[in-house]
Amino acid sequence: MPPASPKRKPMPRAQVFWYGAMILGGLGFGLIGERRPFGNDIFAHPMVLFFMAAMIGLLVVRAVLARPVPEVIPERPLVVGCFVGIAAFLAGNWIAAHVLVG
User: What's the confidence (pLDDT) of residue 64?
Assistant: First the structure.
């Protein structure tokens, strides 16, 4: 009889929300990235604004839960979420430049 395979724990709900928010936010900010709706300043670049929004969201989570963010979402998923957000931003930017031309 083969040994029983270890069962994987389901991903915590906060991590799922974090990844989903980073994907949707990155895609949304990427779609408006080429138009530069907030100006041409470095702090008005959509990617910078996307990460500012993510930072504000994490500060809100910290304040509402009254716990450090790494207790809710570990450091590694936080970093992976940031890279996923960058990839989604670039995908949205590509979609806006090549698919939604017009």
Answer: 94
